[in-house]
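Researcher: Go.
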Amino acid sequence: MSLLIKQKHIMKKVLSLLLVIILAASVSFAQESETTKKNVIKVNPLNLIFGGINISYERVLFPSGALQVGLTFSSAEVTVNTTSERITGIGGSVGYRWYFGGSKDAPEGWYAMPRFQFSSLSDGSGNGINTTSIGAVAGYQWIWDGGFALDVFLGAQNTSFSTKGDVSGVSINGILPVIGVALGYSF
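Model: Structure:
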């Protein structure tokens, strides 16, 4: 009987040790995953002012660099043959973020990003607008422990509008400001 009691005592110690190792490993993994988040999905609510919604995805490629791609759904009021019409469309963007100036790695901290954007809007009957933009932004992105992300940026872009069909009244071409706030989740 004393051998059986010793075996139970040893088993309890082994199980306790395994439990401690598993807990330590899970805490270590949780801390590692918090600091090595490589993806961010964001929405820019300021685009709603201009009749659109922008969703972007950022993927860390290097400790100080990340690729960001975006998808924009837009809606605008334009004049077609002296009649006001609503046109809708889709666009995309791509940019590369260089993170600098601190002890934080991408995707958190100060960054600069050159970017390219294109969008095409149409009323479905051959009337519409195409826009092409090349520019750069600088900003700061915060990422909290729970994954919440806040990105604030500003910059400038050279934008070119071209019209299709009978659209008139679009004459914005040249260098325009870029201001944004994006809210999202990092994982």
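Model: The two ends are 54 Å apart (CA to CA).
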